Request: fold
Amino acid sequence: GLGYDSDRGSTGLVDLRIKDALRKGSLTTGRLLISEEEQRLTLEYVDPTLLAPTIGAGIRLSYEKFSYDTTLFNLERARITPFLRFALGQRNVLELRAFASDAGISDVAATASDILQGEEGKLSSAGLGIGFRTQSAEDATVAWRLAFDIESTGTLGADTDLLSYAVAASAIVPLPSRFALRSSFLAASVEGRDGDTPSASERFALGGAALRGFDFGGVTARDIAAETTNLGGEVLTVLRNDVVLPWPNRADTYDVFLFHDIGAVWRVSSDTAPSGTLEDDRQLRRSTGLGVNIETQIGRFEAYYAFDINGEDTDDERAFGLTFRS
Reply:
């Protein structure tokens, strides 16, 4: 399909889904996303009963390339991940994985921070990870999901020794008078071990659909010098809340909502001194606004307007956001 969003501009999207490709019950999925600033390709094959009725196995392949306007460098990353998947009842899934990846930072601008200059080049990583997913029953009054991931690189030998984790949760809660609360939370962190430090390829940023009211990648740690450099941060937290209004027939074709987002990105560890002032402390950003989701015969529209934005002076703000997917 074709689409547009304020984060990536015009996009092309191709999804793949094949059942029983190599064995009955197996599933092959894939997605190709192409835009001016971002290209992503992911493929996954999983056989949920390969080893036992509740023990499956599979492999994921991914390739990503980024060249955002908000950064002074390009990023390219490839990864292969074989995994075992355990069904723990009807609603719980445990995944054990190994992975190997290559990430490269290139075309760093001459005016960029000395920290970025020192991170240019390719790094290989390999390690082990564990993930857990659980969710509410299909007929539950409150629909919710919870996920936890932790990965350790360097355990299988590579250029970097890092520990990362992520916790994600979401819920839809009915409220009186046909209102509803739709919330999502994400916390993530990456830290170096044995003298290693994360590079820009592992650090995080917020903005766009992830933190409405701010430009895509516009909430980040920065090196403020003659040329301000967005560095990303090693810790991220964000909470998004939508109060869905009791509009007529909203469940059929559209919903209108008020939103309030809170998020922060902070901490940069580097052996290289910044070019100017390193701004990487924990400062919460907030935004409040109004949004709408509309389902049509040609696709889905999502739009929002943030009428109150509380950020830092160096943040890249954007009050209006629009997404369309055919």
User: Anything to note?
Assistant: Residues 78 and 125 are 11 Å apart (CA to CA). The chain has a mean pLDDT of 91. The two ends are 5 Å apart (CA to CA).
